[in-house]
Design goal:
globular; Butyryl-Coa Dehydrogenase, subunit A, domain 1; four-stranded antiparallel β-sheet; 3 domains; about 15% strand; alpha+beta; four-stranded mixed β-sheet; Butyryl-CoA Dehydrogenase, subunit A, domain 2; 11 helices; about 400 residues; Butyryl-CoA Dehydrogenase, subunit A, domain 3; binds flavin-adenine dinucleotide; single chain
Length: about 400
């Protein structure tokens, strides 16, 4: 493994640094230093600025409004944005740009690309993800939401749950059953569905930490055009799975930067509270340091893999397990460092609902307790730790497969 970047990539880095120096105030401390309303407004304006400078869709082909940067240039871009403490996308763009946009580029027809991609880029269409159901999470293929053909449309009936950012979204991508007689992985279809219609009801779910961006979504005769099927009818499982592996290269680059900034903040807090003399705390901090640095090298390995093969292999599961379990453990350590102070919430909770708070975030009890809640959620969404271990055991180590659950 050679962790050095090419001269061309380093020249590109200088270009991005110059852009950041031009656009950010000299006393910029990172978006985490702003109060939440200002951080949200900054993100909205920053997204438009990235778009104006061709930096919002670095991976998309030029004909669809992207910049067609190389993989390495994309990685350098997200590295520099993360180091500067500015977002690489808007608040809903994990679902809009990365997932809906990425799936269109991979599976969309020319008509679908021409229609949807410009509206995703402009922010007119905002998306959420309609996979999980009350009885289908880890065993996603057991889902029951059904879609029936009616002329030029499909009629969708059923319910989804845990839709992050579901209330801001005006489109949802939905995995639904179109052939109930087929084996469970074979009768599913992937749809784009407009949410602004009478058959769609969104109900909020408040998370334990108070964050309001979780939802359940009911489909009661909701309609979508047959032109909004992505991929082939009854082949939705393949489409849905390809989405789960989209664009992990930039995550491998940003995770170590964000988690390292959070780790440094933890060490500062332990020093301020006089906890660095406690040998057990010191030992746990040393362990966290080793894990966060190992994450950086795994990131390099993923980048090397992605850059050379164009797709990510078992590293996706290794990485998800590593960063999410690290984050769960390091946030528990932070609560132990705080001690009884953790019971009195002072300061502001994290701006980000998942993973580490943004660079520049203040050190406070509310910030660390919020990070602890994020740490628990991190080991669940995008495939739980147990499911990642199953994947590694069965598909990488070749251990015997566990018995399949019976069809619902
Ligand atoms: C913060 C957050 C955001 C989310 N956002 C979205 C979203 O936007 N859209 C969306 O569709 N979904 C979303 N989800 C849902 C998420 O994908 C599911 O919660 C997850 O897949 C687990 O499913 P479940 O909650 O039904 O748990 P279950 O599948 O019921 O699992 C319960 C427990 O059993 C374990 N388990 C289950 N099966 C096995 C097995 N075969 N072997 C070993 N252990 C097993 C699990 O690991 C878990 O510990 C989100 C979840 C969270 C926490």
């Amino acid at each position: 493994m050679d962790p050095r970047y090419s001269e061309q990539a380093e020249a590109f880095r200088e270009r991005i640094k110059a852009f950041l120096a031009d656009e950010l105030p000299t006393d910029w401390a990172g978006i985490g230093a702003l109060p939440k309303p200002e951080a949200l407004e900054f993100t909205r304006q920053w997204r438009a600025k990235l778009n104006d400078h061709g930096l919002l869709a670095p991976a998309w082909p030029v004909e669809y409004g992207g910049s067609g940067f190389t993989k390495l240039e994309q990685v350098v871009l997200v590295e520099e944005l993360a180091k500067a403490g500015v977002p690489a996308m808007g608040a809903s763009d994990t679902f809009s740009m990365k997932m809906a946009g990425g799936i269109l580029l991979r599976w969309g027809t020319e008509r679908q690309k021409q229609h949807f991609l410009p509206k995703i880029l402009s922010g007119e269409y905002l998306w959420c993800q309609g996979y999980s159901e009350p009885d289908s999470g880890s065993d996603l293929a057991s889902l029951r939401t059904k879609a029936e053909r009616d002329g030029d449309e499909y009629v969708i009936t059923g319910s989804k749950i845990w839709q992050t950012r579901g209330r801001e979204a005006n489109w949802i991508f939905v995995l639904a059953r179109t052939d109930p007689s087929a084996p469970k992985h074979k009768g599913l279809t992937f749809f784009f569905v407009p949410m602004d219609q009478p058959g769609v009801t969104v109900r909020p779910i408040r998370m334990i930490g108070g964050a309001p961006d979780f939802n359940e979504i009911y489909f009661d005769g909701a309609r979508t055009s047959a032109d909004n099927v992505i991929g082939e009818v009854n082949e939705g499982w393949t489409v849905a799975n390809s989405l789960l592996g989209l664009e992990r290269g930039d995550e491998a680059a940003t995770n170590p930067i964000q988690f390292r900034a959070e780790f440094d903040r933890l060490v500062d807090m332990a020093r301020e509270l006089g906890r660095l003399d406690d040998p057990v705390i010191r030992d746990r901090i040393a362990d966290a340091y080793i894990r966060v640095e190992t994450m950086r090298y795994l990131g390099y390995r993923i980048l090397t893999g992605v850059l050379s093969t164009g797709s990510i292999g078992p590293e996706a599961s290794i990485s998800k397990l590593q960063w999410s379990e690290y984050h769960r453990d390091v946030t528990r350590l932070a609560i132990d460092v705080l001690g009884p102070d953790a019971m009195v919430l002072e300061g502001r909770p994290p701006i980000r609902g998942y993973r580490a708070d943004d660079p520049g975030a203040p050190n406070s009890s509310a910030s660390w307790v919020g990070a602890l809640y994020n740490g628990v959620a991190d080991t669940i969404y995008a495939g739980t730790s147990q499911i990642q271990r199953n994947i590694l055991g069965e598909r990488v180590l070749g251990l015997p497969r566990e018995p399949l659950s019976p069809r619902p």
